[in-house]
Design goal:
The model has no long low-confidence stretch (mean pLDDT 94). It contains six helices and 15 strands. It is 23% helix and 23% strand. The chain has 351 residues and is an alpha+beta fold. Strands 1-2-5-6-8-7-12-13-11-10-9 form an eleven-stranded antiparallel beta sheet, with helices on both faces.
Length: 351
C-alpha cells in the first residue's frame, strides 16, 4: 500500500491510499479553491452530558449548512476536473480520506473524517473488486491506529451509511470515521455485559456468543477466519454481525489471514443485501458499523472487534421506522424473526 498525506486549501488533511505508487507519479495535485485557512467553516461542536441517562450528546448546529444532495457534476467527493474543483484535487484516485469540512466532532471534542471508496460516482461498495475492498480495509486500519494515538481520543468508529432512506446527503460511495472523545454508550453497555459475564463464568462473552451462533441456525455465511450471522435478538429486519474467529480489540489486531479473507466475505454479504428484495428493487439502504474497543481503559481486553450490517427496509416498499417504543423508550420491536432473516440471506447467495 502507498500512502500519501497532503493538505487541502484550508489546511485540512487529505490522505490518498493506493495499491502501489500511481502510474502518473506522485500525488501532487494542489487544491486551488479559494478556501481561506484562517477562515474555515465555523465548527461549533460541543459535547454535553445528559444527567438522566449519563450519556454524552454532541451538539453541532453548524452542520445545518452542509452540502445536501448536490447534482452529480457538483459532487464534492468526485475527482476534480477542469470545470469542477472538489474536496479531492486529484483527477483520479483509488481510496481517499480527508477531514470533514462540516464535522460533528472537532478540536478537543474529537475528529471526523470522510472515506471515499472509489472515484466512480455511480459505484457502490458491493461493486468493488476484492483488491479495492482490501485497500479500504487497510485505510480503516491505518486511520484507527493513527487516530487512536491522538490525545483525547477514546474510541474510533468506522462506518458507512448507504441510501437516502438512511439519511445520506451525498450519493458518492463513501463512509466516515469518527474519533470520539468518549466511549460511546453502545460500547459501554457491551463492556458492562462482557465484564459481568467474565465475573459470572470466567469466560469471554463475545467468544461464547460467537461459538453459540456458529453452532446454530442463524449463520449466513462462514469462512475459515470469519463468520456472519443474524444475532438471536436482532433489532433490525435484516441485521448481520460479521466477526473474526480470533478475537481482537480493533482493526489493528487482525492477522494476515483474516485480512486476506475479509474482502470476499464482506463483498458477498453486501451483494446478498442487494438481492434481498428481488431483482427489480432499488439498492438496499444499510448501515455498516465497525464495533471497536475503546483505545484504553478497563475492559478493553474483553472486547471483540465485529462489524454490524443492517437495513431499515423490512419488505419491498416498506421501511422499519424508529417509532414510539424505539425512539421514546429504546425498546426495539422487530417485525422479522432472526431465523427467517437468516434463511432469506442464505437463499440469495451468489451463484
Amino acid at each position: 500500500m502507498k500512502k500519501t498525506v497532503t493538505r487541502l486549501a484550508d489546511g485540512r488533511e487529505l490522505i490518498y491510499f493506493d495499491h502501489a505508487a500511481p502510474a502518473s507519479g506522485a500525488r501532487t495535485a494542489v487544491d486551488s479553491r479559494p478556501l481561506d485557512p484562517l477562515d474555515p467553516v465555523v465548527s461549533a461542536s460541543e459535547i454535553r452530558h445528559d444527567p438522566l441517562l449519563g450519556e454524552p450528546v454532541a451538539i453541532a448546529s453548524h452542520r445545518q449548512g452542509r452540502i445536501y444532495h448536490p447534482p452529480a457534476d457538483s459532487c464534492p467527493l468526485c475527482p476534480s476536473t477542469g470545470a469542477w474543483h472538489s474536496e479531492i484535487p486529484a483527477a483520479d484516485y483509488q481510496v481517499a480520506v480527508f477531514e470533514n469540512r462540516f464535522p460533528s466532532l472537532s478540536g478537543a471534542d474529537g475528529r471526523c473524517e470522510v472515506v471515499c471508496f472509489t472515484s466512480d460516482h455511480g459505484a457502490s461498495f458491493a461493486g468493488l473488486s476484492e483488491e479495492r475492498a482490501a485497500l479500504v480495509l487497510a485505510a480503516w486500519t491505518d486511520r484507527t491506529a493513527e487516530l487512536s494515538a491522538r490525545p483525547g481520543v477514546a474510541q474510533v468508529y468506522c462506518f458507512e451509511n448507504r441510501g437516502a432512506e438512511i439519511g445520506v446527503t451525498l450519493a458518492h460511495p463513501h463512509g466516515q470515521i469518527y474519533a470520539f472523545p468518549f466511549t460511546t454508550p453502545r460500547t459501554a453497555t457491551m463492556l458492562r455485559s462482557a465484564t459481568a459475564h467474565r465475573a459470572r463464568t470466567g469466560r469471554n462473552l463475545f467468544e461464547d456468543v460467537l461459538a453459540e451462533e456458529r453452532a446454530g441456525e442463524r449463520v449466513v455465511l462462514a469462512g475459515e477466519h470469519w463468520t456472519a450471522y443474524v444475532p438471536y435478538a436482532a433489532r433490525w429486519p435484516y441485521e448481520v454481525h460479521l466477526q473474526p474467529h480470533r478475537r481482537t480489540a480493533d482493526l489493528t489486531g487482525l492477522d494476515a489471514a483474516a485480512r486476506a479473507e475479509f474482502p470476499a466475505v464482506y463483498l458477498e454479504l453486501l451483494r446478498r443485501f442487494d438481492r434481498l428484495f428481488g431483482p427489480d428493487a432499488p439498492p438496499t439502504p444499510y448501515i455498516s458499523a465497525w464495533h471497536q474497543a475503546p483505545v484504553t481503559g478497563a475492559g478493553r481486553e474483553e472486547f471483540a472487534l465485529h462489524l454490524e450490517l443492517f437495513t431499515v427496509r423490512r419488505a419491498p416498499g416498506k421501511l422499519k421506522y424508529l417509532a414510539g417504543t424505539e425512539s421514546g423508550m429504546g425498546a426495539f420491536m422487530n417485525d422479522v424473526s432472526p431465523e427467517s432473516a437468516a434463511d432469506r440471506l442464505r437463499e440469495v447467495a451468489g451463484g
